[in-house]
Amino acid sequence: MKRRSMICMAILLFLTGCVPTLDRGEEEIIIVEETDEMEEQQFIITPTIDTPENFYRNVLDESGTYLRSQARGVVAHAMNNRIDINQFEVGLMEIASANFDQSEFYFREGSYLTGETINRWLRRFDPEDQRNTDGLNPPLAEGESDEDQMRENPLVLSNVLEHNYFYGSAEEGVNLGGVVVGLALRSVYYFRTEVVGDDGIVRYHFHEETLDLDEVEEQGKEIAQEVVERLRGMAEELREVPITVALYQEEPRGSIVPGSFIAMTQLGEGETMIGEWEAINEQFLFFPSRAARDAYPNQSNVFSQFKTEVEDFFGRSMGVVGKGRYKNDTLEELSIEFNLQSHGKAEIIALTQFISGRVSENFSSDVPVYVYVNSINGPESIIVQYPENEPHIHIYK
Question: Where does the record place the region Disordered (predicted)?
Fold first, then answer.
């Protein structure tokens, strides 16, 4: 199915997950706002923006408006923390780039899985309850109490995210080229039970169960097979296009670093049965921390030296934290954040200039480094250094 397209000046990239409606006090009931299914229409495409990140261009509607997923709406308690939601969304686009080249494909938020559909999928499977017959989470088994039943049968799947990728040109129109689906899996199961006291008052007891990550991954792969089969039967254009499925492992609630993708699989045109899974070796580490010291002592020492040099220059201690992203045990990206209490604008300028020099001296020129200088008044300056490029500095006025 072809759709006419033309070049339009615009750029926007907001990705949003979906949230479940669950029973038995396990999660709050969330209502996902729906939009009417769009009729056949023309589309336009955002222009190419030359950045080191090489973001996808976006498919817009004929008026130049960003096309939001029908599952877009309230994002609340589906995943344990906001940084997991962010990484889940952006990381899924990076996974897509392995199969859908940014120079040839255009991005659009998912247009097949509605909020209502995802809500049904995130429920517990129960063949006797019509609301839960599509549930992808395990059913409750026998148990002496609600707590026993929930603890022994945790809700593993927390979120489902769909991305669509189109190919074509301004002259010939665009067509669906593939679908990428992310399945977010819990590492800790948080739930609550109700107890009615002798006084008749209902009291809530809150619990958590740390999950076996190997078992969670296996369940995620089983869920992925069911998701692929359902997608193939949803629409004619989904029967033949390539489908990529990726598993995302969340971090516990309150974590200061996000989780990571742990496995992915690719199905070719018309394929329904998942074959091999490719393991993804990715992790985020916080500096300074014991985990970083144990895993990468040399880089941890470099960060500590950098922190000391900047504090000596500034003449006082300050909040300095770093977040390193590692793939296959190699640093891929480093973000550093400074938090100041009191300062003058001249101090900010001098500090930013000094930090820029120390970044070039201390950290590898092979990875992008992002430095954010903040104060109680908000952002003060930013330093971005890409491989084989001089640092870019911006000081907020």
Answer: 128-150
